[in-house]
Backbone:
């Protein structure tokens, strides 16, 4: 089974939305809201698009509402990989 | 609400002198104001065969491309992926200009700072990349940032966001004339509610798609020799070379600038604009450039004989060069004022072009030297101008007139004077 990790979040965000100033991505970011890391809703849509392309699963646009933090994103995406339908 | 918002502004006057206190340049023959200026005085051209894609299949193969520019040096990583190359050039020039002006935007009231830039091409390289993804892979592969990267106001918006400048921002799209129109708009704003305006412009019409769009004007040079490709006012004129880059300038009311100890480059003293009528079959085209020049001189309360140099629009198309020479002759008399076109070293930069000419005029005032027009050796009959050819001309410059014509009929003229 595919596992999606915090490092995958870091890797995909860096590639598709750039690194925040001071590269705060390297730190303990699991529970830091994306907005505080400098990523807005466009950045999260872009992250979702890249996950779809890389892993071949569909992620609806409104799924980003379930991903306020990197930890929430990892948990949501792992549920999707496990076959849970999107809402 | 930020507490900065509550700062009361000092009184503005409708006739307050508006000065330029900072300049940032990204040009094909130099990145950074002093690198550009040194190259320009030396007659060093930035025109060369296009290398960022294979131009062989296109009729135009020479361009002015900004060299040795690393966006990461000036632009945060988050912004680089969201914006086009043209905005990278604008953000870089803005950072340089603010640094040059000695301004820390965080210390100024956010609603009293504005950003007004010229744009003509938008984010075409970014747009081409996304359109290629659309065609080859499908809509889900088109990046979300396409929605904000392409459009004309993107540079204004990103500068505004980056520096917290929430005053009356805007963008003017008048092709090459826009770079002067924005300086006039900056002056208007500084006489009303604004304390500082980031103005100027950049453009980067550099992707194959953008080049093709420009070729439709019929005014681009198709010559392969960079030295002979762009020869405005010359018997051998054959159109112009496209270029990228431009300049950003920091404009302030003179009293506010002096109060904080800034040393102005010069005064935005006068502006005039006109529009050419639609061409009529069977009649020679009518040009209203002379009217724009007179309006600008009147606005600046400057007589023609007080003007020390004219920075020409110099489009490089024979009949349009003749029209410009006629307008200059009509106002100043034959060979009565030095005329130069340093854009022969950069190509025409569209939204960035007149802003760069304005920056160049201010540097000419600062250093008492007129940069040369390169390549031109034999002025065409009827172009009865005192062209500054070959080498820079040292002479006191207190008053400079900058001309710009935008494709489609825009004419703008701006007078800058010594501080």
Residues:
């Amino acid at each position: 089974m595919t596992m999606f990790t915090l490092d995958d979040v870091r890797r995909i965000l860096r590639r598709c939305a750039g690194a925040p100033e001071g590269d705060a991505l390297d730190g303990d970011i699991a529970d830091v809201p994306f907005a505080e890391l400098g990523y807005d809703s466009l950045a999260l849509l872009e992250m979702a698009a890249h996950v779809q392309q890389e892993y071949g699963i569909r992620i609806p646009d409104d799924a980003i509402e379930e991903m306020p933090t990197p930890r929430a994103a990892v948990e949501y995406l792992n549920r999707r990989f496990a076959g849970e339908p999107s809402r | 609400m930020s507490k900065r918002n509550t700062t009361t502004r000092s009184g503005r006057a409708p006739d307050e002198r508006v000065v330029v206190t900072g300049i940032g340049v990204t040009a094909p023959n130099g990145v950074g104001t002093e690198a550009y200026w040194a190259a320009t005085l030396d007659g060093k051209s930035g025109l060369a065969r296009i290398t960022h894609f294979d131009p062989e299949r296109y009729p135009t193969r020479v361009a002015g491309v900004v060299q040795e520019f690393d966006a990461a040096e000036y632009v945060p990583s988050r912004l680089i992926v969201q914006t086009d190359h043209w905005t990278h050039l604008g953000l870089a020039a803005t950072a340089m200009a603010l640094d040059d002006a000695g301004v820390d935007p965080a210390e100024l009231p956010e609603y009293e700072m504005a950003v007004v830039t010229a744009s003509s091409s938008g984010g075409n390289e970014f747009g081409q990349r996304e359109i290629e993804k659309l065609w080859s892979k499908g809509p889900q592969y088109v990046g979300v940032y396409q929605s904000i990267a392409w459009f004309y106001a993107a540079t204004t918006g990103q500068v505004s966001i980056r520096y917290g400048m929430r005053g009356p921002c805007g963008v003017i799209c008048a092709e090459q004339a826009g770079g002067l129109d924005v300086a006039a708009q900056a002056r208007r704003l500084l006489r009303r509610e604004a304390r500082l305006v980031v103005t100027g412009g950049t453009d980067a019409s550099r992707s194959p798609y953008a080049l093709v769009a420009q070729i439709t004007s019929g005014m681009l040079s198709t010559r392969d020799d960079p030295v002979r490709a762009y020869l405005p006012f010359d018997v051998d004129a054959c159109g112009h070379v496209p270029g990228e880059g431009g300049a950003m300038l920091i404009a302030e009311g003179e009293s506010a600038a002096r109060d904080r100890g800034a040393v102005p480059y010069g005064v935005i003293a006068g502006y005039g604009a006109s529009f050419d009528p639609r061409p009529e079959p069977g009649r020679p085209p009518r040009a209203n450039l002379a009217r724009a020049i007179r309006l600008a001189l009147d606005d600046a309360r400057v007589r023609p004989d007080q003007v020390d140099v004219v920075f020409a629009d110099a489009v490089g198309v024979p009949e349009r060069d003749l029209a410009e020479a006629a307008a200059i002759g009509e106002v100043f008399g034959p060979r009565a004022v030095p005329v130069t076109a340093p854009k022969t070293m950069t190509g025409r930069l569209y939204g960035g072009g007149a802003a760069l000419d304005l920056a160049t005029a201010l540097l000419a005032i600062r250093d008492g030297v007129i940069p040369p027009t390169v390549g031109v050796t034999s002025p065409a009959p009827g172009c009865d101008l005192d062209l500054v050819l070959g080498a820079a001309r040292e002479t006191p410059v207190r008053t400079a007139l900058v001309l710009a014509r935008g494709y489609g009929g825009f004419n703008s003229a701006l007078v800058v004077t010594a501080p």
Q: What stands out?
A: Chain B touches chain A at residues 76-82, 140-141, 143-145, 147-148 (CB under 8 Å). The CA atoms of residues 87 and 155 of chain B lie 5 Å apart. Chain B has two domains: 13-259, 270-417. The first strand of chain B starts at residue 18 and ends at 27.
